[in-house]
Amino acid sequence: MAIAITNPTTGEVVETFKPHSDDEVDRRIAQAQSAYEALAGTTFAQRAAWMHQAADILESDVDQLARMITIEMGRPIVQARAEVLKSARGCRFYADNAEDFLAPTTLGDPSTVGASAAGTRYAPIGIVLAVMPWNYPLWQVLRFAAPALMAGNAGLLKHASNVPGSALYLDALFEHAGFPEGSFRTLLIPASGVERVLRDDRVKATTLTGSEPAGRSLAAIAGSEVKHVVLELGGSDPFVVMPSADLERAATVAVTARNQNNGQSCIAAKRFIVHQDVYDAFLSSFAAKVAALTVGDPLDESTDIGPLATKSGRDELAGQVDDAVRHGATVVTGGQVPQRAGWYYQPTVVADITPEMRLFAEEAFGPVASVYKAASREDALRLANGTTFGLSSSVWTNDADEEDWFVDHLDAGAVFVNGMTASHPELPFGGVKDSGLGRELAAAGIREFCNLKTVWKA
């Protein structure tokens, strides 16, 4: 894929960018190494002041950044604005909490290990390479960058090739905020250039948010180099509705849970598993609300659904729905490519899904909801856990015993009860099975890229 901004609303190329040469990549790695060595001598208080300044810059640039995100990848402008402000919030969270998260610990009775004192300390490890996707072009990066820099590491970013504007903004952000030159550097390189960077001895670890094949490839390289890796590889998250649920609220939240960011979210609810006793009522309400969404120009404040970010993504989604229909699925609403410029797809609800359909096992990355009927809570759990993914999940019930049962048995990195799955700086984020390994956010996220040292004193 060329490194270019292509407006998905029109399909027109806005601007192209020349990839960095190998010499330029080496220069930027060297800058990051020098910055890491400088950051190692700074205090948490100093880094926190710089990180707060980065948050201030994001907030002051919110309108400019929201427009840039919308033009680059089609996110509705209201949601794009919220992404910028969430990114600033994430920066402030780590500025305020990093020192506590990485505080030394002491063993209560060091004599048990034959010492006068013993405990642990966290230390930064060096340069961390991030390979990031286009769907949340600021938040995905900053939820890695803020903790990495607050821990005293330096960062390199290989961003998705269709959001170079966001990538270059981030390249300058931390330096403008006061961090040493090179603390965070963008590399304008193709996917084929990642291996060379990761094998550089100065790069100590890597993180990727993206597709399962990309994650497996990166992890294989990191493993061969004995370098730490954190992966978030998407999901096909279940949204389970039981008879005791508040159906109207569940249906209302389900619309947002599926269609946020034009349906292009790893943690968007994708499979709606509804108990047979309330299936018809939920499906009727849910489909009507989906059909009422406004599809239009994402720069218009009233638009709910904009275009998908890429033509290939739109065509892939349409192919999944067409395959389901050929195998007997029912399109309750939507299911068509609109006759208009840009890479749009109608908000869609599909029922009567069976295992031979691609939608049964594949992640649908766009505004398409698959609805399943469950005969019991055990049947609902079987369907919920019946994919190779395990990122997050949502269960709707007002039965306390049922709530605990689902929390215990859902095979996912998170369970949200009577609410929409979301990422929060204060809570760990990550999945199990093919959804990845490791955690971002909260204390777990900053500790992923630290050396946990055991300290023993005679």
UniProtKB/TrEMBL annotation:
Keywords of this entry: NADP, Oxidoreductase
Superkingdom of the source species: Bacteria
SUPFAM superfamilies the UniProt entry points to: ALDH-like
Domain Aldehyde dehydrogenase: 3-455
CDD domains: ALDH_SSADH1_GabD1
Pfam family name, one: Aldedh
InterPro entries associated with the record: Ald_DH/histidinol_DH (IPR016161), Ald_DH_C (IPR016163), Ald_DH_N (IPR016162), Aldehyde_DH_dom (IPR015590), ALDH_GabD1-like (IPR044148), GABD/Sad-like (IPR047110)
Family: Belongs to the aldehyde dehydrogenase family.
Matching NCBIfam families: PRK09406.1 (NF006915)
Protein name per its UniProtKB record: NADP-dependent succinic semialdehyde dehydrogenase
Species, as recorded: Microbacterium kribbense
